[in-house]
Design a protein that fits this description.
The protein is mainly alpha-helical. It has 4 helices and no strands.
Length: 90
C-alpha cells in the first residue's frame, strides 16, 4: 500500500478534526485544493488554516462538509497567524 501524500494527509486531518471520524477515500478536487494550500504555505501553516477554519466555523454553527469549505478562512487565518507570531517575538 503506497504511503499517503501530504495533500491526502491534510484532507484526512481536516475530516478527523472536524468530524472525529477517519475517512478512507479523498476526492480528487480536495487533493487539488490541499495541494494549492501546501504550495502556498508550509505544512505547519496549512494545518493552522485548517484548525482556524474549524474553530471559527463552530462559532457560527457553520457545518463544513468538505475540505474546500475551510479555504474561505484562509485570509483570516493568515492574519491571525501573523499576529500570533509577532506576539511570540515580544
Amino acid at each position: 500500500m503506497p504511503s499517503e501524500s501530504a495533500p491526502e494527509k491534510l484532507v484526512k486531518y481536516f475530516y478527523k478534526k472536524n468530524t472525529g471520524r477517519d475517512i478512507s477515500e479523498v476526492k480528487p478536487k480536495e487533493i487539488e485544493q490541499a495541494e494549492r494550500l501546501l504550495y502556498k504555505y508550509k505544512e505547519e501553516m496549512a494545518h493552522f488554516i485548517v484548525d482556524y477554519a474549524i474553530e471559527e466555523a463552530k462559532k457560527t454553527n457553520f457545518n463544513m462538509k468538505t475540505f474546500g469549505a475551510c479555504l474561505q478562512y484562509e485570509r483570516e487565518a493568515m492574519e491571525k497567524y501573523e499576529i500570533t507570531q509577532k506576539l511570540k517575538l515580544t
